[in-house]
Amino acid sequence: MSKKYTIRKGLNLPLFGEPIKELKPSKFVSNYAIRPSEFIGLKPKLAVKVGDKVKAGQAILFDKKNERIKIPSPISGEISAIQRGPKRRLDQIVIRANEKCEYLNFGVKTALKKDEIKNKLLESGAWTLLKMRPYGCLANPDDSPKAIFINGMGSDPFASKPGFSLKGKEELFSRGLEVLKQLSDRIILSIAQDENSDLLNNANDIEIHRFSGPHPSGNTSVHISRVSPLNKGEVIWTIAAQDVAIIGKLFELGELHLDRTIAAGGSGMKNPQYYEVRGGQSMKKFFSEETNKGNYRYISGSVLSGEDIGKEGYIGLLAKQVSVIPEGENTDFLGWVLPGFNKYSFSKAYFSWLFPNRKYNLTTKLNGEERAFVVTGQYDKVFPFDILPNQLLKSIWAEDIEKMEELGIYEIIPEDFALCEVICTSKQPLQEMVRKGLDILYNEMN
Amino acid sequence: MKFIQNIFDASRPAVTSGKLKPLYPLHNALETMMFVPDHNAKSGAHVRDAIDLKRTMITVIFALIPALIFGIYNSGYQHYKALGLLNNDIGWLQFFTLENFLFGALKIIPMIIVTYIAGLGVEIYFAYRNKHAVNEGFLVSGLLIPMTMPIDMPLWMIAISTIFAVLIGKEVFGGTGMNILNPALTARAFAFFAYPSFMSGDKVWINTTLGPGEALVDGYSGATALGQYATTGSTTFSAWDAFLGIIPGSIGETSTILILLGGIYLIATGIGSWKIMFSSLLGAITISLIFNAVAPSMISPEQQGFLSIPFYFHLVFGSWAFSTVFMATDPVSAAHTERGKWIYGFFIGFLGIMIRVFNPAYPEGMMLAILFMNVMAPLIDHYVVEGNIKRRLKRLKLSVK
């Protein structure tokens, strides 16, 4: 079964620095870190202390609420630091890597039952690759989801395209699919309209849907809304296609290999292209070798919803891309009055609309100040859901749980509001608001 | 530009602490007007659109300026024409003259300045009191208010109307973004009901004084087209003159073609809602056609005359065009949902024309229609939102089965 969907509402930001499809191999990196903040819904509890020797796949953290959920070490080595922030919140656990990576072995027994598969995923920490809807947090192994959605697309700016980043891993991908099939009756893979890689060769017995159109056509929420909308009380699990291959490798070799082919884009990159990296690795060397000199923002993830990690930061354990764009520096004299031939705007309020095909070197500048909600109808233009974005945001603002549910907060996660946030006239922090709303709801329900 | 920045930098300590602290919102407003600040995105998306509320507001002002400049010329033109100083044959050569401009400008620019001082004064006070930055909404309201006034409106009345509008129309509801009524129309409605002799009738639309204290003797009728229709059932103005705008009326409302131009600009930039404008047009045409159909059954010849005029007369006379393009589209007081905007706009056009035809005391039905629909907008939105919720519930029920 295969269906085609065209997404009309949305926006592809015209940015410089689109990664070209060339791969640069990995280099040895000596420092790795786990950041608990990357895992939504995790109440972290340490499983190691400074000086402990760990192997790749060994648990670094547990979830206090469900101790079966473990955050794995991406590498073998020694815990060199446990850094805490305000109120002793765990910030990051730093691991100094061995020259040669040793993997914990989780066995290669085949013909496993559903529970054995779950246990293996949980034991190895590969479970953290699965997310759940609603909330977009770590999946709960006790749920039985109505479907598992595999996202084989990337419509974010500079996104890594699974067709390229999984090149050579097609076998592992289909092995991963076999594993997932044991977890749910309904497996749905969404891919781009123009995707013609070998990925699908062995994708038997699963639903494949093709999506086209501007971002967010590649967001899982969009796929869910079109294929099997999420209702109150239902659970869906989601996973990225790149991570399916990691699960495939786990069941093939018995080891957890968190290395990925990521896309690195943005005008700060010397050569925007694909790189082999391992989740959690220090990006200090990478950024100093691969980026231009200047004042840049270094983002693990996309420019729409990634995390600012700084030049010496660590890439997320789950990240599929990094983006490097200039920090905004100067004030703009009478910027709001002048014609603005070189100012990017989704609206046509600046005369840059005269040059529709131009690309921009956008900085991180807010281009204004935060204001009350004034303009309406703006978000709807880039928000392809049957959800009223302004009304939903206002219900979150009012912390009205019943209204949030009625207006469909279950169907979205913060990244779906990223484009609304980009084009917002009032510069409201929409993704933060949506995350807050989901947190309120989660705490109410659990 | 460095020296301007230096002035702001040097004066900042004085307003961030000490006795001048109440002036901080003003300082901040002026500084951010001169320089869009270099704030960077801290959470969420790392890149942001260049648009902000200031640009949105200035876009509306750009759209208003042609009608405003025309209004300045027209005030002078109507004045000199009433005085009998114009030769009727030369036409446009007599319209765009320096004399007309100066006459209008000397009247209208003080009105604009007074409105901004009164309105921004209140805004800055509330910004200080509630510790937020000055919102830009008043940039547009401050221009709209004088443009909806007759030329001879005393400045103190404009000031009081403006203060009333900002206080009661906006700040009591929580400030920009929270108001129910359109602030500019609140000001006009206040003036209309508080000072009716300056806001309605046949004498207020044209300045007919020769100099201070010297009124022109009676005999020149300054009635607007709608005023004429209400009393006689016909008008002496042609639809073409009204389309161009060389008729008496409120300062900004007369030139339909320049308002249309402003409307096109607002739609093209994506700032004004085309749904509201278009549905207001549909509403106005619908009611006009209904009136045309029932006109023969009216008893008085005046009513028959007014009801039977073609729909395009309604679009060019009075304030339908100005209200539809610049007043109905205020996003805060309009319906907030996209479907709601269709209903909201339709009834503005529909009711506006209906009031102007049926109630001769209020030839300006558009103002009342918009204020009424402002009040109704949350109700419209409520039903649109309910519809969305019901669709979701229906889907849930289907999936349970």
Gist of the model:
The complex is a heterodimer of chains A (446) and B (401). Chain A is of the alpha/beta class and 446 residues long.
Please give a structural write-up.
The complex is a heterodimer of chains A (446) and B (401). Chain A starts with a strand and ends with a helix. Chain A contains ten helices and 21 strands. Chain A has two domains: 1-328, no CATH class; 366-445, no CATH class. Chain A has helices at residues 114-124, 162-165, 170-181, 220-227, 241-253, 284-290, 389-397, 401-406, 418-423, 430-445, and strands at residues 2-6, 20-24, 31-34, 44-46, 53-54, 59-63, 70-72, 77-84, 90-97, 131-133, 137-138, 147-152, 187-192, 207-212, 236-240, 259-265, 273-278, 296-300, 307-308, 321-326, 332-333. In chain A, the strands form four sheets. A seven-stranded mixed sheet of chain A has the order 1-14-13-12-15-10-11, with helices on both faces. In chain A, strands 2-17-16-20-18-19 form a six-stranded mixed sheet, with no helix packed on it. Chain A has a four-stranded antiparallel sheet with strand order 3-9-8-5, with no helix packed on it. In chain A, strand 8 (77-84) and strand 9 form a beta hairpin. The mean pLDDT of chain A is 91. Chain B is mainly alpha-helical and 401 residues long. Chain B folds into two domains: 2-34; 53-385. Chain B has a two-stranded antiparallel ribbon. The model of chain B has no long low-confidence stretch (mean pLDDT 87). Classes of the chains: A alpha/beta (446), B mainly alpha (401). At the A-B interface, strand 21, helix 9 and helix 10 of A face helix 2, strand 1, helix 3 and helix 17 of B.
